[in-house]
C-alpha cells in the first residue's frame, strides 16, 4: 500500500491543478413554438481547480463567464403578441465534475470528463429578472507541461443548460417609459460550447 502511494505521488497525481483560461464560447439558440431565443457568440474566460481523488482521476470545480446579447425572434404567428426584443446578458457557469487523465508521456496528458452544476443568466436591464438553470457538460483536451509545476491546457467543452419549456416576450409603453423582457416556463435543452486555452499551475508534491 505504501509503495502504491509513493508511486502516485511521484507521478504528480497528488498535485492540485489551478488553471485560469480564456477562449471563445458558442452560445447557441433555443427554439420554442413561439419563436427562437439566440445568444451571440462571444469570448469567455474562467478558472478551474482540480484535486486528485485517485490515480489518474481528478475532481474538478470550474467557473466560466461569457458576456452575450440575447435576441428574441418570434415566429410569424406570434409576432403581434411577442414582438422582437434584444438585451445584454452575462452567462455564468458553476460546474463540478470528474476528469480522467490519460498520460501519453512525462510531458503530455490527454483528458476527458463530465460536469454537473448551474447556469446563471444575469441580465443588465433592471426590468428583467435573472435566471438560474440546471446545466451539465462534457469536455476533453490536452495538457502539456514544460516543467513539473507549469504547463498549458487546451480544451473543448459542450454545455447543456436546461430551460423550462415555453417562452414569452413582452414589450410595452406606459407612463414610466418603454420596457421589454423575456419569461420562461416548461423544459427545453440548448447546446452551448467553448474552445479555451489556459496556463496550468501545479501545487504540492
Describe the protein's architecture and organization.
The protein is 4% helix and 74% strand. It is mainly beta. The two termini are 18 Å apart.
Task: Give a quick rundown of the structure.
The protein is mostly beta strands. Helix content is 4%, strand content 74%.
Percentage of residues assigned to helices:
under 10%
Q: Secondary-structure element sequence?
A: HEEEEEEEEEEE
Shape: elongated
Structural class by helix and strand composition: mainly beta
The average pLDDT value, as a whole number, equals 82
| Poorly predicted residue ranges | 1-12, 165-186
Largest sheet: 8 strands, antiparallel, barrel
Strand order of the largest sheet: 1-4-5-6-7-8-9-11
Round the Cα radius of gyration to an integer and report it. 21 Å
Helical region count? 1
Strand content bin: over 45%
How many DSSP-defined strands? Answer: 11
N/C terminus separation = 18 Å
Record the SSE blueprint:
Elements: H1 2-10, E1 16-26, E2 29-32, E3 35-39, E4 42-54, E5 57-74, E6 85-103, E7 108-123, E8 131-145, E9 150-174, E10 177-189, E11 192-203
Antiparallel strand pairs: 1-4, 1-11, 2-3, 3-5, 4-5, 5-6, 6-7, 7-8, 8-9, 9-10, 9-11
Protein traits:
single chain, 205 residues, mainly beta, 11 strands, disordered N terminus
